[in-house]
Write a structure and sequence with these properties.
Elements: H1 5-26, H2 42-50, H3 71-91, H4 102-113, H5 125-137
Length: 145
């Protein structure tokens, strides 16, 4: 590849860009567009097209907020997140954990839950009365004749 090859490529790109932009500058489709006079917004479109407005300038751009973290901090936070994800993947990979020792875990859970109920019967009369009333309400009506 010769030393002139990058120069030729850049000149060709500039020429193509200039040709494309000159096509835009010659014909503006919005300048020759017409509005249907029967349209309900025709008067408003004509008024907006003739209105003289001030265009925004670069001075109108608001300043950068002071309470935003700097750009390098975003990269550091992303790297920390990637490292935490990799650590979680390592810790939960197949073969890194097992289901042994569940008896001790279940025993602790039973101790926290409180005394175990020994039978299906309730120990209070009020609970039994409530259950009997609910069973009576739940009895379906007889089938129609």
């Amino acid at each position: 590849m010769s030393r002139l090859e990058p120069l030729r490529t850049s000149l060709l790109l500039c020429a193509c860009g200039a040709a494309m932009l000159s096509g835009c500058a010659v014909s503006n489709p919005f300048a020759t567009a017409s509005v249907d006079p029967a349209s309900p917004i025709a008067a408003e479109v004509a008024a907006k097209a003739r209105a003289s407005r001030a265009y925004p300038t670069f001075a109108d751009i608001p300043p950068v907020p002071a309470d935003v973290r700097p750009l390098p901090a975003f990269g550091r936070a992303a790297a920390e997140l990637e490292m935490a994800g990799a650590e979680l993947t390592r810790e939960t990979a197949p073969g890194t954990w097992s289901l042994t020792g569940t008896e001790a875990f279940a025993g602790r859970a039973r101790d926290i839950a409180g005394p175990e109920i020994t039978g299906p019967e309730s120990t209070t009369a009020a609970t039994e009365a409530f259950a009997k009333a609910q069973r009576a309400r739940a009895t379906p009506p007889p089938p129609p004749r």
